[in-house]
Amino acid sequence: MERLKKLEFDISEDEIFTSLTAARNLVEQKQVRPMLLVDDRALPDFKGIQTSDPNAVVIGLAPEHFHYQILNQAFRLLLDGAPLIAIHKARYYKRKDGLALGPGPFVTALEFATDTKATVVGKPAQTFFLEALRGTGCEPEEAVMIGDDCRDDVGGAQNVGMRGILVKTGKYRAADEEKINPAPYLTCESFPHAVDHILQHLL
């Protein structure tokens, strides 16, 4: 939220739909007590959710929690039948010191070890994009997704009928646009370039 305000977006908190919102909604819907493998800064999103004696595993980006003992605890819960909820399955993300492993490899490891499938609530899941659009009054064909992840941002959006614009910033790597089919609707140098295109050609 603070980052958006610094970029001078005039936006309120209830206008933002994130994968954490989707995860909380699913936890409430399933009425489970999750073991939360999430960054400490994400914990406020689960305020009021019962987490003692967990019977589900919610996994997001949590570098400080991805060690053997904690993952083994999650593994045992899953073996006992707990559902696995993945906030998203990004392969990697961009940090100040370079690219780093995202939650995807850890989710996949738990799936492999327990022979289960995670319910992915964030990108690139179709439900994530459709749920985000639900409150806007827009149909997928009227919406545009701008992102730096070819598969999760652009591919996921295009799979529900949105236009996807890939930007060559953040985690973008050369030739990423060739990794999905259909290719991105457009590839731009930056977010402002993408916005300019929308204003000039799509409105």
TrEMBL record:
Cellular compartments per GO CC: cytoplasm
Pfam family, one: Hydrolase_like
Gene3D superfamilies: HAD superfamily/HAD-like
Cofactor: Mg(2+)
Record-level Gene Ontology MF annotations: metal ion binding; phosphatase activity
Keywords of this entry: Magnesium, Metal-binding
Family stated for the protein in its record: Belongs to the HAD-like hydrolase superfamily.
Protein name, as recorded: Haloacid dehalogenase-like hydrolase domain-containing protein 2
Top-level taxonomy: Eukaryota, Metazoa, Chordata, Craniata, Vertebrata
